[in-house]
């Protein structure tokens, strides 16, 4: 089978991919005829054939041990992947039929019309399986194409949204079948391209940067496949004082990260799915952290990682909850602390606390009075609700007492000013404002002992905000 064509410009590949198969068949038939390529004299060809025949005879006379040693060794495969040379994925056609295909990331452009690679997602809305590997690799190809995503913008979020939407609709959606919602698929592809676009720019700049070269000299070193105007704008951005300071700060922060991992390029979402398929149990964040910071022989990557891993193991052994559930209070959360707003440790690209910890947060705001009257909640929830209601009423009482004391103090102060000045100065007039309507309503509700109980729909809307 001929090697698929590697397109340099993906904008033109869409139109040329449909005719690539016919060209490949013609070239393969031509290559099978040695006379087409062999234009040496007949005597030279005869000598070459005799030499090849002698070498073939000598090879056949090798001992079985030598023959076994001469055979190529099989490539080392990662757990969960069938081959390191290609990806084995499910491809669905326009009729809904699913077949197994062996593809590489650049073969995605050579899929027939209607064929799409299936990408599965787990319970945390992260892609898994070998389809994720093809998708991530193809996202890298697209993100590195400066004709689709120019490099002269300051950051990925500065690119117009139309750039990504057009790329997703034209190249991604027509070649991949996502077994999830479109919003989840777009979110992962967007984050993946963002990461690869930034890494591409850094690699290009680090390749040509020299502290002894001037700005003009670096601008003249335009990388291949990058338009000159984009490169000049990007170099201008890198030489700005604010950018230089930010790079120095990032380099200093990078030195503080002393704990490395052995996870490689495989995302933890795929690793988590493979561990689940192997053991039959869903691994928690603690198991994922141990798996990526401990070597195959059981040793740790370094002493700092050893100290943290031992703390995580101790927390997992002492835990009274199910550590397989992702929670802010699991072993990793207890040892490493609160998560950053933009990521969740050990869950891979795109995971955020608002989504990962959504199922484990206590949602008391969803409780309403009707659910208790109907007896649909347990006695424990009823007791907690009564405690919250009692605490709320107590807070209202304390607030009323404080407001009454404040009103008495202000009246006394007002009488004192009138006694001294005869009238209230304009500078102090705004201080003696009567109680606002909202405060009076709150006092009336507190005095009557009533409490506004929100419905579950209202509480969900407020929580989402």
TrEMBL record:
<dbReference type="Pfam" id="PF03004">
    <property type="entry name" value="Transposase_24"/>
</dbReference>
<feature type="region of interest" description="Disordered">
    <location>
        <begin position="445"/>
        <end position="465"/>
    </location>
</feature>
<dbReference type="InterPro" id="IPR004252">
    <property type="entry name" value="Probable_transposase_24"/>
</dbReference>
<feature type="compositionally biased region" description="Polar residues">
    <location>
        <begin position="9"/>
        <end position="31"/>
    </location>
</feature>
<feature type="compositionally biased region" description="Polar residues">
    <location>
        <begin position="456"/>
        <end position="465"/>
    </location>
</feature>
<feature type="region of interest" description="Disordered">
    <location>
        <begin position="1"/>
        <end position="35"/>
    </location>
</feature>
<protein>
    <recommendedName>
        <fullName>Transposase, Ptta/En/Spm, plant</fullName>
    </recommendedName>
</protein>
């Amino acid at each position: 089978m001929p090697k698929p064509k590697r397109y340099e410009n993906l904008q033109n590949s869409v139109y040329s991919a449909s005719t690539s198969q016919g060209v490949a068949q013609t070239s393969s038939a031509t290559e099978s005829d040695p006379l087409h390529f062999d234009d040496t004299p007949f005597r030279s060809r005869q000598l070459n054939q005799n030499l090849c025949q002698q070498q073939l005879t000598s090879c056949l006379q090798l001992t079985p041990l030598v023959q076994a040693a001469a055979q190529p060794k099989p490539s080392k495969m990662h757990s969960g992947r069938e081959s390191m040379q290609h990806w084995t994925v499910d491809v669905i056609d326009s009729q809904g039929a699913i077949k197994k295909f062996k593809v590489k990331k650049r073969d995605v452009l050579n899929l027939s019309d209607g064929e799409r690679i299936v990408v599965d997602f787990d319970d945390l809305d992260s892609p898994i399986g070998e389809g994720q590997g093809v998708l991530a690799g193809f996202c890298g190809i697209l993100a590195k194409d400066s004709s689709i995503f120019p490099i002269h913008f300051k950051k990925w979020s500065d690119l117009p949204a139309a750039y990504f939407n057009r790329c997703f609709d034209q190249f991604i959606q027509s070649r991949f079948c996502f077994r999830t919602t479109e919003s989840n698929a777009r979110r992962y592809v967007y984050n993946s391209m963002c990461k690869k676009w930034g890494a591409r720019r850094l690699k290009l700049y680090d390749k040509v940067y020299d502290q002894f070269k001037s700005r003009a000299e670096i601008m003249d070193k335009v990388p291949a496949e990058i338009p000159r105007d984009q490169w000049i704008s990007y170099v201008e951005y890198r030489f700005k004082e604010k950018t230089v300071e930010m790079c120095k700060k990032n380099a200093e922060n990078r030195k503080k990260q002393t704990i490395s991992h052995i996870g490689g390029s495989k995302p933890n979402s795929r690793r988590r799915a493979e561990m689940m398929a192997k053991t039959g149990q869903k691994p928690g964040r603690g198991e994922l952290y141990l798996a990526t910071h401990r070597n195959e022989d059981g040793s740790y990557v370094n002493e700092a990682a050893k100290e943290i891993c031992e703390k995580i193991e101790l927390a997992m052994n002492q835990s009274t909850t199910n550590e397989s559930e992702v929670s802010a209070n699991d072993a990793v959360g207890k040892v490493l602390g609160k998560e950053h707003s933009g990521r969740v440790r050990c869950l891979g690209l795109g995971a955020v606390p608002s989504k990962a910890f959504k199922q484990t947060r206590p949602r008391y705001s969803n409780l309403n009075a009707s659910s208790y009257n109907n007896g649909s909640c347990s006695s424990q929830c009823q007791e907690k609700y009564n405690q919250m209601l009692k605490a709320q009423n107590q807070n209202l009482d304390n607030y009323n007492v404080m407001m009454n004391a404040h009103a008495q103090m202000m009246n006394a102060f007002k009488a004192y000013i009138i006694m001294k000045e005869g009238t209230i100065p304009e500078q102090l007039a705004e201080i003696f404002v009567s109680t606002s309507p909202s405060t009076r309503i709150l006092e009336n509700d507190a005095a009557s002992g009533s409490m506004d109980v929100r419905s579950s729909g209202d509480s969900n809307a407020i929580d989402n905000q």
